[in-house]
Amino acid sequence: MHRSEKVCVIGLGYVGLTLAVALAKVGYQVIGIEKNQAIVNLTNDGTPHFAETGLSALLSQVINSQNFFAVQDLKDHKPCGTYIITVGTPLNQNGIARLDMIEAATRQVADAMPDEALIILRSTVKIGTTRNVVSPILNESGKKFEIAMCPERTLEGNAMKELHELPQIVGADSECTRLSAAKIFHKLTSSVIQVQGPEAAEAIKLIDNTYRDVQFAFSNEVARLCDAFNLNAFEIISAGKLGYSRTNVPLPGPVGGPCLEKDPHILLESAETKDIDLEITRASRLVNERLPSETAKTIKKELMNRGIEGQLKIAILGMAFKGVPETDDLRGSMSTKILEELRSLFPRANFMIFDPIIDVITLRDYFSNDLVCDNIWDAVRGSSLVVIANNHPKFRSIPPNAIFQLMQPNGIIYDYWNHHSNSIDRAFSNRYLALGSLWRNENA
């Protein structure tokens, strides 16, 4: 079947913009649809609206080559051969993935698509959404179409590289449709994996991310155990897997972000449609979601034991949901939840905010009740508590001694990522606490 090389990507968030730019770079004529006019303007000016390694230069290149442009809707534009839906599916207040943006995007596609168009769903969705939500809306148009599910799996901060390296999953009912979708992605990567039916592709994305969530939950359980026994989780986990290939426990830390905080819930929701309760998945989410509350209470206890109370100055370092690869994404950030828990326990405290990547204006808009600093030294100066909340390499490169010298004399660092657990100076060891490594305080 002959199909136009013109591709329409609906939704220019993290998933959509990186994919659109990658497709334009390999020769497709790409239209990006984004309802936010400010994002449309930035995109057409060659400026990404989020930080992503390599994206800025590539976006400018494909805009200048006229292989890519962004608009608010598809009206007055010629039909495309392929439509890729990449809009978000955030959880609602009840922990259920919203489908309103999927439905709206699908209706837009149904109105614009020609006969025989290929529709690809790339958003993360409950198992059965391609067949039971997207296809019926497209069918209402009376037009003929092919539909496939091809989930996004890139790592923020490494997307432009991984779009060309990671295997692309293609799920559809017919071999003809699978081949049509595979042809799109073969221009990006030589590795395309075809699976039977869209449900298989939907499940792969959910299972992959839930598996990671379960792994991290176990490491956070280890941290709880080590704290209780005055052991060092960093030492135990590192020593246990050294030269021992059957064990690869990750180090503990806050688990969040736009995928890991959401996808296990969508998998649970999928299972519930078949009256199945995924006990391990549910328990893992419980462990990871209660970590901010548990650790905030631990921090308060440590401060009270040292006689540090009253109107404290508290510095929170690292507000993006992760630091490696670095990103400016605040969606699902556990740092914000840690801040909320500490604020509830220390209502009189003054909070100082710093992030090495997120620009100060964005931080000030997001954390309007707190003092945002443009350097780490202003954030920690005079503080009684410094919380290292994400794993950006900058926090590993700064000696804790330098931070301690600016803090209150009896102040403490609480490090969620064990950046310095194996290198802290003995003189400061009773003031450096890390997740799963409270033993330093007990034995100092």
UniProtKB/TrEMBL annotation:
UniProt keyword terms in alphabetical order: NAD, Oxidoreductase
Which residues are the signal sequence here?
Answer: none
Q: What class of enzyme is it?
A: oxidoreductase
The chain positions of domain UDP-glucose/GDP-mannose dehydrogenase C-terminal read: 315-422
The record's section on InterPro entries has: 6-PGluconate_DH-like_C_sf (IPR008927), NAD(P)-bd_dom_sf (IPR036291), UDP-Glc/GDP-Man (IPR017476), UDP-Glc/GDP-Man_DH_C (IPR014027), UDP-Glc/GDP-Man_DH_C_sf (IPR036220), UDP-Glc/GDP-Man_DH_dimer (IPR014026), UDP-Glc/GDP-Man_DH_N (IPR001732), UDP_ManNAc/GlcNAc_DH (IPR028359)
Q: What is its EC number?
A: 1.1.1.336
**Biological process annotations from GO:** polysaccharide biosynthetic process
Tell me a Gene Ontology molecular-function term this record carries: NAD binding
Q: Output the Pfam families linked to this UniProt entry.
A: UDPG_MGDP_dh, UDPG_MGDP_dh_C, UDPG_MGDP_dh_N
In the record, the note on similarity to other proteins reads: Belongs to the UDP-glucose/GDP-mannose dehydrogenase family.
Record's protein name: UDP-N-acetyl-D-mannosamine dehydrogenase
Organism of origin is Yoonia vestfoldensis
Classification from the root reads: Bacteria, Pseudomonadati, Pseudomonadota, Alphaproteobacteria, Rhodobacterales
